[in-house]
Amino acid sequence: MNDYELHRETLAVTHGERGQTPAPGVEDVTIPVHLSSTYSIPDVDPDADLESLDPDAGEYLYSRLSNPTRNALEHRLAALEGGTHALAFVSGTAAIAATMTAVVHPGDHIVAFEDLYGGTKTMLNRLFAERLGVDVTFVDATDTDEVEAAMRDETRLVWMETPSNPLMHLCDIEAIAAIADDWNAVFGVDNTFLSPYFQNPLSLGADVVVHSTTKYLNGHSDSIGGAVVTDRDDIMDELAFLQRVGMGSMLSPFDSYLTLRGIKTLPLRMRQHEENAMEIARFLESHDAVTRVLYPGLESHPQHDLAARQQSGFGGVLSFELDTDPDGTAAFLGHLDEFPLAVSLGGVESLIEHPATMTHSPLSQADRDTLGISDSFLRLSVGVEHVDDLLSDLDEALATV
Length: 401
Ligand SMILES: Cc1ncc(COP(=O)(O)O)c(C=O)c1O
Hints:
By secondary structure, the protein is α/β, with parallel strands linked by helices.
């Protein structure tokens, strides 16, 4: 049977890992961390193409170019997203930078969701627009017509994230894919928030998918990494050049190993993240001290129907607003035991984040007000702990509001 016909629960545990060890006679069940930086080769090959060494054909020369542990991870990532190619990068940021660089040139135009991860927005403004001469238009992509209206002949790339952070806005991947297609633009989706377990943008028409593997894919808050998955050979060729030669931004063997190991439990973790997040969202929605809850799994979410249609689950991140002032918010945060105040998300442990002073502090107060990020607005990354412990911790802290 073709491996891709297996269920994701099976692919997550086994795909790509067996048969990767070059040591003769050793059939590892889990791939070792293959640390060698260089490999001896049998003879001189005047025709060797260093940028496209094929690890599956045993072509190993130098670990920046190909490495068995990274190769195993890349196979698994491709299988989980349902793509033909995957590459693992040193961070999600590096994966995004390489993907954009692979597609756009000076004079080109990018249409992007205004509600992107802050680092991606800064990259688009400070690197692509200011330094590389690429025009960038940010749109409210919850309205597909705005995406269409921003398209131009020079638009080479459309870049989306859904759901967005921390406002949990969604965009319609299938509809935007059709627009990008009409304009011959590449459509990239950052799928970090849902992981390949709950959403597969390639199957909805996207050309390329990126992940910060730092989040759900690795899942244990102990590795920084990124990934790109695509079906397009032309994009893969450019990305491979950038990963191995142009930027040298490939994932290390140890982080590749950690991520492979983390992925084995991705389906189990995602189901628990979602179950806990749904219970917490319903609890917060019914609490007097909470003015609003943003979670696509709630019927009250304005894009609940779209979420139910294009996702196979609602994920583990939600945001909510307290009915209090900054001092009340600080007191609430101080009373929590099970939710450390920390950025990032997607680990097995629950975290709480205060966007106004943390992830979104670079924005002006006016911009935060426009977006609806008040001083009492909070984001939860709901972990896989017992939900009753999380609920009683929140309940006790809410009593102080
Ligand atoms: C949606 C999203 N994309 C990309 C990134 C960047 O990933 P990394 O921190 O691995 O570079 C983040 C980080 O928070 C993120 O939330």
